[in-house]
Amino acid sequence: MTDEPRETTERPQTEPTPQSPEPVAETPQPQTEQPEASAAPTQAEAAETSAAAAAAEEQPAPTLEERVAQLEAQIADLTAQLAQARQEARENWDKFVRERADLENFRKRRERDIADRVLQQKKALLNKLLEVMDNLDRALAYQDSLDRQGLQQTLRLVAWQMNELIRSEGLTPVPTVGEQFNPYIHEAVEAVEDSEKPEGIVVEEVRKGYKLSDETLRPARVKVTVAASNKEREQPGGEGEA
Predict the structure, then answer these.
(1) pTM of the prediction?
(2) What residue ranges of the chain are covered by domains with CATH 2.30.22.10?
(3) Which parts of the sequence are annotated with region: Disordered (predicted)?
C-alpha cells in the first residue's frame, strides 16, 4: 500500500484587533484632617479652675468685725466722693453767677455807651443849630435898623447856613418840580389839569421833602398834573354827542 499524501488545509490567520487602553483610576490622595478646636477646657485651665475653687473653699468667711470695717471703708469712700461732687457743684454755681453778673454788666455798659454816643451826637447837632439861631436872632434884633435889602440878605445867609447844616448831617432835598410823581418821596396835595404836560408831572412844591441817605425822612408835598377833562378838550362852540 502506498501512502497518499494528505492535503492539509490551512486556515487564514486573522490579525488581532487593537484594544483601546483602559482608563487608569486616579489614586485618592490622603486628606490631612485639621485638628478641631476643642470646646472643652484644656487641662491647664481645668487645673487653674480647680485650684481657685479649692483656694476659695479654704479661705475662711469674713468675721463680723471685718465685714463692718469693709462697709465703713465703702461709706467713707462714698462720703468723700459726695463731698467732692458738692464742691464741684458749688464751684460751677459760683462760676455761673460770676459770668451772669459779667454779662449783665456788659449789657448795661453797652447801653450806657450807646446812650452817651447818642447824647454826643445830639449835642453836636444842637450846637450847629444854635449858630443858625444866633444869626436869626441878630437879624430880628436889627430888623428896624436894616433896610429891606439888608434884611433879605441876612435871611438868605441864615437859609444858606441852615442848608449847609442839614447837608452836613446827610440830609438832601427831594427833587420836585418837573419830576415824575413818585409816591415814595412825594405826597400829592392837589391835582392840576394841564393839557400841555403829560399826566403825573410835579408842577409845584408846597412843602420841601428830605431824604436821609437812601431813606425818605419826609416826603415833599406837591401839586401834580392830571389829564384834561373832555369838556376842556372840546372846541369852542362844539356840541357833545347826544
Answers:
(1) 0.48
(2) 172-233
(3) 1-64
pLDDT tens digit sequence for 26-38: 444 544 444 444 4
Right CATH number for 68-169 from 3.30.110, 3.90.20, 2.60.120, 3.40.50?
3.90.20
Using one digit for the tens of pLDDT, what is the confidence trace for 137-188?
887 887 777 777 877 888 888 888 888 888 888 888 899 998 999 999 999 9
3-state SS of the chain? CCCCCCCCCCCCCCCCCCCCCCCCCCCCCCCCCCCCCCCCCCHHHHHHHHHHHHHHHHCCCCCHHHHHHHHHHHHHHHHHHHHHHHHHHHHHHHHHHHHHHHHHHHHHHHHHHHHHHHHHHHHHHHHHHHHHHHHHHHHHHCCCCCCHHHHHHHHHHHHHHHHHHHHHCCEEECCCCCCECCCCCEEEEEEEECCCCCCCEEEEEEECCEEECCEEEECEEEEEEECCCHHHHCCCCCCCCC
Which residues of the chain does CATH 3.90.20 include?
A: 68-169
